[in-house]
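Q: My labmate handed me this sequence with no annotations at all. I'd like to see what the chain might look like in three dimensions before we decide whether it's worth expressing. Could you predict it?
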Amino acid sequence: MNSSRIAIAAALAAALATPAAQAQGMTEKCYGIAKAGRNDCQTDHSSCAGTSKKDGQTDAWVAVPKGSCEKIVGGKLTSS
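A: Here is what I predict for the chain of 80 residues:
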């Protein structure tokens, strides 16, 4: 197997693993820790990923491993 095929296979495996982890409940939404433009999904003011306007925006979230959000400075399980 050449290096380009390995890279493609690795990228495909990573893309397929992420939704599976979320579907199995291994992640949680963590609000208030996303960097500007790095949120995972919708906010209260937009419906797309990557649309947060500032670092630590309280309504923007990223998926983190379950149980780790509240250990992150500024991380909350609800938007406030």
